[in-house]
Design a protein that fits this description.
Elements lengths: L3 H9 L7 E5 L12 E2 L9 E2 L3 E4 L1 H5 L4 E8 L13 E5 L11 E4 L3 E4 L2 E4 L10 E2 L10 E3 L7 H9 L4 E5 L4 E6 L3 E2 L10 E2 L2 H11 L5 E5 L3 H14 L2 E5 L10 H7 L3 E5 L3 E2 L5 E5 L3 E6 L3 H19 L8 E5 L3 E2 L5 E10 L5 E5 L16 E5 L5 E2 L4 E6 L2
Parallel strand pairs: 5-6, 13-16, 13-17, 14-15, 17-21, 19-24, 22-25
Antiparallel strand pairs: 1-12, 2-11, 3-10, 4-6, 4-7, 5-9, 8-9, 18-20, 20-21, 22-28, 23-27, 24-25, 24-26, 26-28
Helix pairs in contact: 1-7, 5-6
């Protein structure tokens, strides 16, 4: 049995490169950008008005003029209208291109308009106010979003603003989620008193979809030959196999033997942690990686976040996230010599500290408890008593 730190190091030693792909920008959310997004023109591409009001030449203010003849009204998208005299102005709307003959915008709140005349009643008018200067944000060709970051809604907005209808992103690994066991039935079925619905696969799928992966789902019955055949197919057709259940010491846990028969190299089996102690990890030639998680829902959920997502981020070239810490909000004890992942609910106190309140539930099979919690607090292996006010590393899953 190895430690959590050893397991993480071994897993991170198996990062892969899956290449790039070009996809429509609307489909890129959650993917990792593999190219810089650059400005196709200066931003903003003209002197843009930022307030509804009147546009004037500031020289008029310097000359003591504060009442102006309204020459025209200009909306956003209209061709700019020029003034010819200092006592003229243009009624102008937010987002419009500022005419070259004016240089200052006075908002409606500071103006009184009557009978075609606009009179300024504010005293602190400044030259160039309420104008977003041409090219001040970025020059043509400037990088707006560098490669190597997840595509967020903000990145989608940037791509749309510069006409990037397609984006080059890093390919995600092909992932299959495998459950096993005759005690599991489909979600739409009514289980017998001794069966349960196979919810783990859909939990894992939902997490992966949040990270831009669209996995397949497969269920294997408790049959050694079917187990071996199905896993062999998956090893040939997927980059990552995420298994839930069937890896412990039970009489019907056929997966470890199938992996051995198929010459999948075991990197490790069992980690000094709870939940998730029976976690199995291996590699098949240079093709596929196998993350075989325990079948208990909380164990699967924790291992997925603690190990697979850590590996995925490293594989995609994302920088390692700085650790987040939280303050334990009450005393807690845990006896076995295992690193414990305590489910917690979070809140901030008036000192700006992140406080973690334990919500223990009823063990790694209590999947309903996950809906009441937001993170796992990682409690160190070498201790069994943890005091209120101590600080520990946090792994958020909401």
């Amino acid at each position: 049995m190895i430690t959590v730190e050893q397991a993480e190091k071994l897993i991170l030693g198996q990062t892969r490169e899956y290449g790039n792909e070009t996809i429509p920008f609307e489909q890129a959310l959650g993917k990792v950008l593999a190219e810089d997004i650059t400005a196709d023109r200066d931003l903003p591409p003209f002197n843009r008005v930022t307030m509804d009001g009147i546009a004037i030449n500031y020289q008029a203010i310097k000359n003591g003029i504060n009442t102006f003849h309204i020459k025209a009204t200009q909306a956003a998208g209209d061709e700019p209208v020029a003034i010819n005299e200092l006592d003229e102005c243009i009624e102008i709307m937010t987002g419009a291109a500022l005419p070259v003959s004016v240089d200052t915008v006075v908002r409606y709140e500071d103006v009184e308009i009557r009978a075609g005349l606009a009179s300024i009643h504010a005293r602190d008018i400044k030259s160039g106010q309420n104008i977003h200067i041409w090219g001040i944000d970025k020059k043509e060709g400037g990088v707006l979003a560098p490669a190597g970051q997840p595509v967020t809604p903000a990145i989608i907005s940037i791509a749309a603003s510069v006409g990037k209808t397609h984006l080059v992103v890093k390919k995600m690994p092909r992932v299959v989620i495998i459950s096993s066991g005759d005690e599991l039935v489909d979600v739409h079925q009514t289980p017998s008193p001794y069966q349960i619905r196979k919810s783990n696969s859909y939990t894992v799928k939902a997490v992966l979809q949040q990270h831009g992966i669209q996995p397949d789902i497969l269920h294997i019955p408790d049959d050694p030959e079917i187990t071996k055949t199905q896993i062999q197919h998956c090893l040939q057709n997927y980059d990552v196999l995420l298994l839930s259940g069937g890896i412990s010491m039970g009489k019907f846990d056929y997966i470890p033997q199938a992996l051995e028969d198929l010459q999948v190299t075991k990197v490790f089996h069992k980690v000094a942690q709870r939940p998730g102690k029976p976690f199995w990890f291996g590699q098949y030639q240079d093709k596929a990686l196998v993350f075989a998680f325990p079948g208990n829902p909380v164990a699967t959920f924790m291992c997925l976040h603690r190990y697979f997502l850590t590996w995925l981020n490293a594989t995609l070239g994302l920088p390692l996230a700085l650790p987040v810490y939280a303050v334990l909000n009450k005393d807690f004890q845990f006896q076995p010599a295992l690193q414990y992942y305590l489910q917690v609910k979070l809140q901030s106190n008036t000192q700006g500290q992140l406080m973690a309140s334990p919500i223990e539930g009823n063990g790694s099979g209590d999947f309903a408890n996950l809906a009441d919690t937001e993170a796992f607090l990682e409690l160190p292996l070498e201790r069994n008593e943890f005091k209120k006010g101590e600080v520990f590393k946090l792994f958020r899953f909401h």
